[in-house]
Specification:
This protein is of the alpha/beta class. The protein contains 11 helices and 9 strands. The strands form 2 sheets. The protein has a 5-stranded parallel sheet with strand order 7-6-5-8-9. A 4-stranded parallel sheet has the order 2-1-3-4.
């Protein structure tokens, strides 16, 4: 298989296993390139990409921009804080105005779940979902799974626990979809107040005890507490959350094995992870950042191929 089965990257649930493996094998090639002295290739020299971020972002936006530059694409950056959206312009009108500038691919982060799906049904450009509300964040899940594959050589039968605010996390949902497609065993850990009611419907188990979850897993993917998405008080305080679900070196030393620590960033140091864990040899957090560029290069390259196919 040399072509994706989808025309847009809207969510992991729309991808086949073959799609995911194709993205990974393409990322393997791009990772070799970005570790060379000349890091740029002319693969998307005739492609224009618009980055539409209706929510604040640092890591994801920078990662996409760097991936686009490495591929020699032309880039348009859009920020809703200084746009006509503030004057009442609709999403579709905003995007159609941008498309009139002959844009080929749109990378979009939006606070509303399903915004990228809506857009894909109404415009001809290729869409990459860079996060839609608390729904999905497919490139983050792909880079997380790719990082596990890089560390262990395989994802099948690996035990992965996702720890923290599952209720508000688009990273958690995309990771569950992706890891289960690739044959991993997935569990979640956190307070019941931060678990979706239907979490068992996703085929994952829920640990309420952190130590038990860490004893079970090979990999712990620790999520940031999504304070900006919480309209209610889901736990008494950050201090109490940290005491119950935060991971420090003492906790890891009590385990009878070494586990791998992951985090999508940004880290609330001293809340989800202590610094001696985040910066330890067990952490592959910086590998995730590096792999994010290669994965996003692969996604953009493969979607651009769909444009040329048409």
């Amino acid at each position: 298989m040399s072509s994706l089965s989808v025309n847009n990257l809207l969510g992991i649930k729309y991808l086949s296993n073959s799609d995911i493996n194709l993205i990974f094998s393409t990322a393997d090639n791009f990772k070799k390139i970005i570790n060379q002295s000349i890091k740029k290739v002319p693969s998307l020299r005739d492609i224009t990409i618009a980055n539409l971020f209706f929510e604040n972002s640092t890591r994801t936006k920078l990662s996409f921009e760097l991936a686009e530059k490495r591929l020699s694409a032309d880039i348009i950056n859009f920020s809703s804080s200084s746009s006509s959206v503030k004057k009442g312009e609709t999403l579709l009108d905003t995007v159609n105005n941008i498309l009139a500038m002959k844009v080929d691919i749109i990378v979009m982060r939006h606070p509303d779940p399903g915004a990228s799906v809506f857009l894909s049904r109404n415009i001809r450009a290729r869409i990459v979902n860079a996060g839609d509300g608390s729904h999905e964040h497919p490139t983050q899940a792909l880079l997380d799974a790719y990082s596990i594959r890089e560390k262990y050589g395989n994802i099948k039968n690996k035990k992965v626990v996702i720890i923290g605010d599952i209720l508000h996390s688009r990273v958690a949902l995309s990771n569950i979809y992706c890891l289960k497609k690739l044959g991993a065993h997935v569990s979640v850990c956190g307070p019941s107040s931060l678990m979706p009611i239907n979490i068992q419907d996703l085929g994952v188990d829920h640990f309420s005890n952190l130590q038990e979850a860490l004893e079970w897993c090979d990999i712990a993917n620790v999520l940031r507490i999504q304070l900006e998405r919480q309209n209610l008080k889901y736990f008494p305080s950050l201090r109490e959350y940290s005491m119950t679900y935060g991971i420090n070196k003492e906790i890891l030393n009590r385990l009878n094995k070494h586990i791998t620590i992951m985090h999508p960033g940004p880290i609330n140091r001293g809340v989800e992870l202590s610094s001696d864990v985040a910066d330890s040899k067990q952490s592959i957090i910086l590998d995730q950042v590096e792999n994010g560029v290669a994965i996003r290069m692969a996604v953009l390259f493969l979607l651009a191929g769909k444009i040329k196919d048409n």
